[in-house]
Amino acid sequence: MRGVFPVIAELFLSGIVVWLAGAAASLALWRQPATARRVACGAALAGSLLDFAASSAALFSANPVFIGLPFGNPAFTCAVRLDPLSAFFSVTLAALASAVSLYSFGYLRCMEGRRNLGAFGFFFNLLLLSVALVFTASNAFFFLVAWEVMALVAYCLVSFEHEKKKARDAGVLFLIMSHAGTGLLLIAFLVLASACGSLDFSSFHLLASRLTPVQQGTVFLLFFFGFGVKAGVVPLHIWVPDAHPVSPSNVSALMSGIVLKTGIYGMARVFFDFYGTPPIWMGTVVLALGVASALLGVLYALMEHDLKRLLAWHSIENIGIILIGFGAALMFRALGQANLAALALIAGLYHTFNHAMFKGLLFMGAGSVVEATHTRNMEKMGGLIRRMPVTALCFLVGAVAISGLPPLNGFVSEWLTYQALLAGFGTTQSLTRLMFPIAGSLLALTAALAAACFVKAFAIPFLALPRSPEAADAREASFTMRAGMTTLAVGCIALGLGATWFVPVFDPITQQTLGVRSSSALVIAHGWALSPGRPHGGTISLAGMALFFLVAGAAFALPLALRWRRRTVRGPAWDCGLPGLTADNEYTATAFSKPLRMIFSALYRPRREIQAEYEVSPYYPSSIRFESEIEHPFEQRLYNPLRDRIMAAANRMKGIQAGSINLYLAYIFITLILLLLFGVRG
Amino acid sequence: MENAAQFFLLLMLSPLVTGVIRTLKARLQTRRGPGILQLYRDLQKLFSKGMVIPETASWIFTVTPWIVFFSTILAGLMIPMVAAEAPLGLFGGVLAVIYLLGLGRFFLALSGMDTGSSFGGLGSSREMTISALAEPAMMLAIFTVAIGAGSTGLTEIAGTAIGQSWRFLAPSQMFAFAALSLVLIAETGRIPVDNPDTHLELTMIHEAMILEYSGPYLALLEWAASIKQLVLMTLLINCFWPFGLQPTWFGFGAVEGICWLLGKLLLLSCAIVLLETVNAKMRLFRVPELLAVAFTLGSLALISTFLF
Predict the structure, then answer these.
(1) d(CA B216, CA B212)
(2) What is the pTM of this model?
């Protein structure tokens, strides 16, 4: 505990204390909603900024920062350790949470008087606190405690609008899935703890690779699926598209931006800290499920017209892209390619940070839109770019970033992923190497479909004519909401243009996990360009591209546009001779995704129903009813039968619960005798 | 300097390539055609005209032509045209080229939706669908080429190809070439995927998105489309037939390099014209089959890199 350590520890602890105090104070002030709102958001913001300072300093400190917390008992200690991996995820949390807290100042105002903002502030601060502790817990016990608190608090926030049945159902589904995952994690941690006799993460370091192959594989799968539930990996994703849309939008931004990342953090911790050189099949499993999540996530997003559900499906897609990076890194590790593993890990972690930025931004944008139009259905929006210019611009930045288009941040991480996959082909002679280019081509498909989806997600709500009176009367979001969105939009731009400055952040992490520092190989041309870490491997320079656009825009576009402006008149769009275009003539979101619905009909199995009513002639219908629906195979084929089985089994077991106290005493007695017998014999 | 030269070449040469393709096609259909300089005249006329912008359109509509135009130019500066070294090779390689063209397409699709007319939405929807389906095949072909060169930089890819001049006859290269050619047809909106000469509601894709543009902005978009075609054609020919690429842009070599480029472009144009003339436009929902063929060819290319 020398030098800069105490400062970091104090900053971190004061962040924790501020969050705790914010939670307690806003609960105490629940009768004064306006004060409760200010206190809750202020504490969340202050705590996030303190956490940001602490964890960004910890990321670059030479040794991990260890902080013992003043509670717990000797057997189960409560302590946090800020090593580079923890610090990185903590920075991600803090960056997102500060923008979301700023946004919440304005966003929660509309709930004043209608909802208990004291309770909301309590859960909101506790969520930030528990996520921060999940990222930094130094032993399995404390980790699981924080993990459970996080799940419970997130449940309360998902079901916050509890008078709606959908919110309650989504909350319960989340809780069940989350606990199933926690059960798997518990077993896995117990196996590890029994192997080394300690619960501390530092004693798990490289431990998993010393187990027998069967144990190794079991532990790996338990961890992967346990964390995969929280991350939303296909086929464990079913709670994500239900839970994200029903919660208030600032919570959705946190859920999608950072709560899903706790699963990713767990995987990173297990895969790269607990395992030394994992067998190659583990990497292939992660890579394959990553590709499946990415592709299925975007395909279902395309069919969605609920703006927030669409974004939730995209979270599954982006988790898939992160896992492609992780899977490739695991495979490279198995093949003994530490430098390539570092490249792939950087790609995955970079995308983790990026996704927190743009998905937080998009959910906040969606929140502003939903608040202004009182609907989540895109088909009832339209023309909002005129009514809500700042929200529209921020949403556009997020849409371009998530589609992976240059010169924003999404492109950098996708480019790094492609480079890792490309280099992977030469690392082995076995047929496994075909996985890399196939993953690459499916990633390309995913990215292109995401672009298509975000053309829809931006164009339908924001462009052309309003499709409903509410959209026509929409009002721009309040100042703090715009400030929160702008912060993340600037973040997306900075992480794209400043990619070469951001890459060295990963050096401590790759040093810790893989023993290599690669930023000096990745950043070339005096910090202007990124390379895949080998000479003549190809480069990109997003700052260069942006410079080109700026120079070209200033030199040609601006003067010419101003000159042409004098020759411009406004006129109606071509209406085929009809009496004027109305919003009914506009292309709808359903129509936009129709070609893809037909092309992928084998997957979607779309069902549609059209009923037309007419009085005189079938050519002049008086009203038309159109219904269209697609199938969600995982729910219908996998989870529904599973749920029915469980319910049937529970029904059969109901018989032993007769309600008579004598019977229960008999059960206790029998159990006691059995245990005694067991104790005597063993 | 190389930048300026290639910038100028992209701007000036692209309408000529479009004109040559149109004229050749007309001749093959025993028509006279409008003459190979027609696109220059069209552009000149459009730039001197006024504009009508739909009342429903927002600022997206007015920034789109610029973004499309400049992203296409930037992509064009990242490929080797005359000299073996791409002028802006540092800014990005083949992946950046594809994603920059994707940026232009993203905004073009947005502006199609911005007008509020059904045609725009129709065009945007189809364009995004087809380009998405073309992507996996393209990426497989690019992986094949990039694995051979060990790089995604186009300077390195062309350099590898120069080192082994007859390599394009290798099975993997032939398959990759075929896959990329099909993707090129889809991306540039040519028969059998889209017909650049039609304004028939039911069939148009690219034209539907730009239906509401007029005057200088229409000129910018037409020019950008023409540059995009030149960029993709040059990408194809210089990755696979790097003959005549010069060590530098300077001196007498540049003239020789430009002659080689023109010759290769003419050859490819003839192939495109032949393909357009003997094929009919496909029904929209047959296009995925064509792209599936491209994907199969791309996979074959990849597999043949280590089989042969």
Answers:
(1) 12
(2) 0.95
